[in-house]
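FAQ

Q: What does a record look like?
A: Structure on top, sequence underneath. For example:
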């Protein structure tokens, strides 16, 4: 019926597949400081969009305030993109110019 089983042929097929599989790139989501967005709003965004505790959100917000930028988390491309959009939507709804971006890690 078919060809006889050959372990060499199977090894050839599977080894080629393993080389093609790689971890997805990860992206840092960043918040940027501005002179208008309130610290309280930044903390709320960090808690609700990024699921940070109040303490962790406050620490990140202070980084943004003092250093001009702060890392909210590291995610796959699609998740990072969604979180950036969520931040921009919330900021617009509340009248703040809060800028959020993502960059490959």
């Amino acid at each position: 019926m078919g060809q006889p089983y050959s372990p060499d042929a199977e090894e050839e097929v599977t080894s080629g597949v393993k080389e093609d599989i790689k971890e997805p790139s990860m992206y840092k989501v960043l918040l940027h400081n501005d002179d208008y967005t309130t610290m309280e709003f930044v903390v709320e965004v960090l808690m609700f969009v990024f699921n940070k505790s109040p303490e962790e959100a406050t620490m990140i917000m202070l980084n943004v305030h003092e250093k001009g930028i702060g890392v909210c988390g590291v995610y796959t491309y699609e998740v990072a993109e969604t979180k950036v959009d969520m931040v921009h939507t919330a900021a617009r709804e509340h009248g703040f110019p809060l800028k959020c971006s993502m960059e490959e890690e």
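Q: Is there anything notable about this one?
A: The chain is about 50% helix and 20% strand.
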